[in-house]
Amino acid sequence: MISVRYTLYAALFSAASLTGCTETGASERMSLLETESSSETLLLASTRLAGNAITVAGPEGYCIDPTTMRSSQDSGFAALASCHIMSGGKKGPIVEPGLMTVTVSPATGPAPSPAELAEALGTTLLQHRELSALALGQMASEGETAFSGSDPKHWRGAFVLGPYLIGVTLYAPKNSPLLGAQGAAFVNTVSSTIRAKAKLDASARAEQSHMPVDPLALRLGRLFASRNL
């Protein structure tokens, strides 16, 4: 068990090259809870990753900072946060502060479950929700490094869409309603949009039903951009 846990833990650290961006770095650049440094940043309502196959967009009031984006032909990374905060109060309505990250990578098997994600992170799974777009878990720890003031608890999940493995994570400040049911709904909304707007050809959809089951460590290594993602 110790060797398996070590392998999974190492996989989380080893995939930074997948997106070329660590999650902590993304949150620092976006200055999630301050309005000074990002006031002139060009913010996006949506973006396309993985050769334009996967579209990421947030609910109203949440934008993508393009400096956080990384995309290749079959993978990508983007982070969502409050448009109002990132623009220094110049754009968008006031919404709950939070950081959501989306990672796209090649799928080589079924998506890891919330329990498997918690095991890989070495944390406790506080709750597991089967939502319309994905299975989502609330993790007890590892969220405290996302940005200044972020709560250790956070939401995390993954789902397979055609040939892609989509990983989603939501961090929020301490005592935020996004740590509860509102946060789970937020993640489900973004994940539903990804599903609805994905551009997958027939061969890609067929590939999803024929993917071989591979070791969990490999799936996690492809999913995470850093230990915190």
Detailed description of the structure:
With 229 residues, the protein is an alpha+beta fold. It has one domain (2-223): Sandwich (Jelly Rolls). It is built from eight helices and ten strands. The chain has helices spanning 2-14, 16-19, 23-30, 83-86, 114-121, 181-197, 202-208, 216-223, and strands at residues 46-49, 54-57, 62-64, 70-71, 76-82, 99-106, 125-130, 135-139, 154-161, 164-171. Strands 3, 4, 5, 6, 7, 8, 9 and 10 form an eight-stranded antiparallel beta sheet that branches. Strands 1-2 form a two-stranded antiparallel ribbon. The longest helix is centred in the C-terminal third of the chain and has 17 residues, at 181-197.
